[in-house]
Amino acid sequence: MTHTSYEQAFGSAPQATAQAPGRVNLLGEHTDYQGGFVLPTAIPQQATVELGRNGSAEHVLYSANLDQTIRVPVGETGEGFAPYLTGCFQLSGVQEGLNAFITSDVPSGGLSSSAALEVATLRALRNLADLDLDDVALALRGVQVEHEFVGVKCGVMDQMASSLADTRTMLLIDTRSLDRRAVPFPAGAEVLVIDSGVPRRLAESGYNERRAQVEEAARLLGVPQLRDVTDPAAVETLPPILRERARHVVTENARVLAALEPGVDATRFGQLMNASHASLQGDYAVSHERVDQLVALLQAHPDVYGARMTGAGFGGAVVALVRQGQATVAAQAVLAKYSEQGSQVVP
To answer: Domain extents for the chain?
Structure first.
């Protein structure tokens, strides 16, 4: 039976409610688990989690988007979407059964719908159980959930952006120190996000393999992380595959820093985005034929400064920097050519 509210699903009012936004990353892909710099921003779409105690020894989790209920004994993980919540519960020391009602308009695929769900769940738990978690600690707990319960060895960017970013600026994050500051978008430009329609599941993709490869590359180069490479030519001494993976991380980190230089305008920022996609497509090999097609269509549009895949890859969304006021027009023109059924615009 489809439920439209917590009250309808559980017969009482929720005791805590919280939201968290998805995010889109303009530059800095696959650098956050190598101590690099990233430039994400929040998107308007959000995940909402409502929680309440149920007095039993099991959690009852309902997803309105999936119209699915999962019951999980307290202390266990469960399957499907359950680990994103039960991981938060276990790491927060929850020893009682909870009801959870989840809604979200964050598209899955490159926009951090999972991070938004984790951050929203942890925010609701913080309210429900009076947890002593600031926004950074909350984000790091979300990363721990991904590692220990979901099986994705992600970096810190997604949860940090969902917990701390807003839609008005980019958030520059030093993923080693966690220092951060707001950075304005290039003048005269706005962000367009388009879902490629190609689904992906990171736990079943090559994501963890890529992380292991760059960690091995750092070991062979004798540095703690690839962020510490001072001579990019050193990367060329690595064995094949490791060389390409490391080259992406090193050059991508340099692209973020280049975007912060004085005088960088929308045209230059767009060029850096285009170069980022070429690196993700070639050296890091995480793109997809349909994603590449969509990016190429965007890059060819006269009102688009630059475009690239966003997120971990293997499908998902693309992001473009577009002339101010032209996002909808550009999206309509591009989607008319990119005719795959189900593609959708996220303004």
So the answer is: 6-183, 186-346
